[in-house]
Each structure stands twice: as C-alpha cells, then as structure tokens.
Amino acid sequence: QELRPKSLDIKQEELGDMVEKEMASTSEAIEDAVRRIEEMMSQARNESSGVKLEVNERILNSCTDLMKAIRLLVMTSTNLQKEIVESGRGAATTQEFYAKNSRWTEGLISAAKAVGWGATQLVEAADRVVLHTGKYEELIVCSHEIAASTAQLVAASKVKAEKSSRNLGRLQECSRNVNEMAANVVASTKSGQEQIEEKDTMDFSGMSLIKLKKEEMETQVKVLELEKRLEGERVRLGELRKQHYALAGTYGTAEDGEAKPAPAPRRGILKKPPLAQKP
C-alpha cells in the first residue's frame, strides 16, 4: 500500500464509479456538442449569406459528422470496457477489478476525459469561427487533438482486451472513422479559410500603382515578421512537448505491459515555409 502512487489513494468503490461517471460525462459532452452545432447552423443561416454561409455550413457539417463518429466510438469503448471487466474479474467484484488494475483504470479515465474535452474545445472553436471572432487554425488544432486522444482511448482499451474481441475490432474501426472525419474537418476548414481570405484580401482592382507598391512592401514586412514569430513558436512547442512527455511518462508502466499515453503525431503544419521571394 505504501508503494502505490499517491494519485491512486482512492477507495475501490470510488475508482469503479469514476470510470462509469467519466464515460457517462463524455457521452453527455458529445450530445451537448451536437446540439450546439445544430444551433450554430441555424444561427449561421439567419445571419450570413453567400460565400460565408457556404463556408460556415461546410465546416459545421463536417464537425457534426465528427461528433457522430466520436459518439459511436465512446459507446463502443464502453461496451468493450464492460466486456474486459466481465472476462477478467473472475470471482472479484467490479470495484475490486478496477482497484487491482488501477493503472489501467486511470489510463482509461484519462483517455475518456481527453476525448470529451477535445469535443468541447472543437465546438467552442467552431462557434468562434462562425461568429468571426476566432481563428480557423484553432479548429485544425482541435481536430488533431481529437485524433490523438482517440488513439489514446483505443490504446488504453486494447491493453486488457482479447485480440479476438469483436468489440475491439469495432472500436478500432470507430477510431479509423474518427480520424477520417477529423481530416474532413481540417480539409473543410482550410478550403473555407482560403475562400474567405481570397474574397476579402485579393481584390486589388481600383488601386493606383503607388498604392499597390505600398501594399506589396507592407506585405513583405508581414511575411518576415510571421516567419520570425513562427520560428519562435516552433521552439516553444518543442519545449512544451518535452514537458508534456515528461509528465505523461509518470502514468505509464515499464514492466507490466500497460499502455503509456500515445505521443501526439507530428503535424504537417510545423514544416518551415519557404522564404518569401523578393519582387
């Protein structure tokens, strides 16, 4: 008992209840996200038109598809978790099984929380984009985080599941579907951003030669500033990831074969852009 990590100082009953409560809480968060997206869709149709309405509808539709995929993933994960407990507890109670496998239980709880949190963040980012108070990049980052937390949930479930389990196969299929839907959110966000920016910033008709030259020089200055800022943010991100992995490592195990949190995949967005060409 003294050697057990302090984070596991919970009663058996509490640990068992925490799993069920967290899975239920994640399901509620996703249901709420779906409702909020429907409200945003209605609001967008009333307050926007033309290109902006087309972009908002495409982004919100892709977010809805992603939420539906996550909802199915959580349901399947819950079924697999119940199967794991029933097949592995033997004569022990459910609470005793969770307590005995407390490391695995904590990983499962952490993964479920990450999925629910990612869904909530995605909806909030979508809301800001529709209201023109947020950044398209926020949606892209949220989509990547959802894909990463989904992989974490599958890894946590896979550790204790039988390889021949049908529920495990369904969960892996759900995970692939979530990744595909998250990629669709990224694609619709990028194309929408290009449409809006092209419409708003690429109309140079009516500008004089002097005005065009001034705009060109100002744009070159912005490009250099952004390149410098990007380099600094890349260094900051690297340090944040080092700290994240250091903290996440405390939840993994080395000898009992249990899963460690899945590292976040490298993003294509981190590639250094080519330097701006002089006119």
From TrEMBL:
Coiled coil regions in record: 207-243
Pfam family, one: I_LWEQ
Protein name per the record: HIP1R protein
Gene: Hip1r
Keywords: Coiled coil, Cytoplasm
GO cellular component: clathrin-coated vesicle; cortical actin cytoskeleton
Domain spans labelled I/LWEQ: 7-248
Entry's Gene Ontology molecular function annotations: actin filament binding; clathrin adaptor activity; clathrin light chain binding; phosphatidylinositol-3,4-bisphosphate binding; phosphatidylinositol-3,5-bisphosphate binding
Any single biological process term in GO: clathrin coat assembly
Keyword Glycosyltransferase attached: no
